[in-house]
Request: fold
Amino acid sequence: MDVDGILGRALEGGGIGGDDALRLLSLEDPASVSKLFAAARELRDANFGNRVFLYGFVYFSTYCGNECAFCHYRRQHPIARYRKGREEVVALAGSLMDSDINLVDLTMGEDPAMHADGCSELIDIVSAVDSAVDIPIMVSPGVVPREAFGALAEAGADWYACYQETYNRSLFGRLRVNQGFDARVAARESAVEHGILAEDGIMAGVGDTVADRADSVMRMGAGCDQVRAMTFVPQEGTPMWESGTVGTVEELKVVAVLRLAYPDKLIPASLDVEGLGGLRPRLDAGANVVTSIVPPKAGLAGVAQKDLDIESGKRSVRAVFECLDSMGMKAASNAEYSRFVKERKASL
Ligand code: SAM
Ligand code: MD0
Ligand code: SF4
Reply:
């Protein structure tokens, strides 16, 4: 089928198959790529109107015992690290809620101090945030043991984010050195079994082919209500510093194809790759969540971009509101987002 045929069928609710995903992700000429983005926007608008959800990002511990080849925070990288205490995390989450952010994403490296004793420290922090702050909570703690999910759900975790990065197993082994591919899949499944919504994600530019990305797109929907793509940003002093990456248009194409494959899932536009300047193109490719909103002056870091746009306030909620306004889009209220989360949890 030609590209117009694939897009037309997707717009009529017929979805896309793996061959279609490959075809669309291989598009190069600007006119066809803009048609792809337009179709993705149309499906996004049909499902979510002009409403966008806003996620605040609290990277509360940058300690990590893993050695992911792509990551600035890998154990062997000699960088300054921090670990925020419970009260500080609660205060940060509260100020995000007060500035009309819909969810707080509590993210950490695989910090041994947080993982010790059945993840008791992490569970304690989630529970303290849940008692004090009335917006949904996402946790991004890396792989945690199956037994921890019950306690995390009880403590108030609404979402569990754990990204596969790629569905190419041999590439996974080179990226997430000494980690299990199946353990990551199983962790998301355990979360869902415990009534927690799950997010999966991939990176573009980590040595993946277009065919890898098409395969990943088709497989990452399983059981997840949120799916994402981020362009790999090489990190100085890490093994992949000089291994190259791809242009961000590849990420935008994945966002659009994810939208065609999963019209009603949440798909982030992350500020963590290109900062505020990258927001509009991601929304224009069919994303409907802004992630990695980080308040200035709180001593918080990003992941792929550890400091881009943070202290200047360009990753703040106010800057995001201005951008949404200029696009005719609107931030959802906390009531709207909480209702969405409740409905999705009910249908798990
Ligand atoms: N430590 C936890 C984990 O690995 O699951 C959660 C936080 S981790 C820093 C979140 C995600 O950031 C990773 O899964 C990866 O997709 C993304 N990431 C890390 N380094 C990146 C980089 N240099 N460029 C783009 N994305 C990156
Ligand atoms: C983001 N920096 O949303 C964050 C992070 C973890 N759940 C998310 C990668 O871009
Ligand atoms: Fe640690 Fe997560 Fe970075 Fe891997 S991606 S090194 S687990 S912080």
